[in-house]
Amino acid sequence: MDLRHLKSFVVLAEELNFSRAAVRLHISQPPLTRQIQLMESELGAPLFERLPKGLALTAAGCTLLDDARRMLGLMDAAKDRAAQAGRGELGRLDVGIFGSAIFHHIPRLLLQFRSLYPNVQINLHEQTKAEQIQALRERRLTIGFNRHVRPAPDLVVETVYQEPLLVALHGAHPLAQQAAISVRELSQQPLILYPNNTREGFADHVLSMFYHEGLQAQVELEVKDVVTAVALVSSGFGLCVTPEAASSLQLPGVVYRPLKAEPAPTVELVCLYRRDDVSPVLTAFLETVRQFQPQSANETPMR
Q1: 3-state secondary structure string across 198-261
Q2: Is the pTM above the cut of 0.85?
Q3: What is the pLDDT of residue 295?
């Protein structure tokens, strides 16, 4: 007994007529009759009672009909799920996240993907750059988002977009009255840097801006993350440079002003994934990433 025979049986049980069932199955009547006879022989019991004006299900036929419908339904569901998985519409996506981008851009991107692929399970992992790279190589992560990632033979590093840099400062600070703050003006202020546990990282990127203009930053504190840095700004400890996404972090007294320089200072957000990963879920997610449109008019999407 195979699935083809089960399907023939179900159709005949619904029609209770060999001719009509054969039409629905797109076969002639003799092959259908042989299929049912084979099933009855294998089961050792008649499935249909032959009547002058048609057929009727026997007790064995009634019992088999319920199970056959369940099995055919499970097979259809299995085929549908396999097809969905092949299109990237079903599966699991493990995403490495970090710091400031989680306040605005990455949640919007994930929400956009979820609206397109609601049956993909998304799991978020807050990890440093080194942890993301290790997790990718150990296949515990599908894709990571980070900054300042060096290329590697086994990993693809792809730019998502360039993000403007802002200065976070207390609203009572004299520079808060300006529309923008230059790197030279910033060099005369106590600076809070982050993160202090990743090299090369965002802190080095900020310091390089001072170096390129022949200036020295007055580093007051180095802290672990953007939340701590902005909290210290709120308390009046100093100023800090943040990506624009971090401006979603609104703490008492903190305002954000564009950082002014030539060329306009930005920081790159990248995604990283295994070069040999050809999974449909990753392919679908990368398509969403590449079509993602940053909300701010000041950000420039990258291809």
Answers
A1: CCCCHHHHHHHHHHHCCCCCEEEEECCCHHHHHHHHHCCCCEEEEEHHHHHCCCCCEEEEEEEC
A2: no
A3: 62
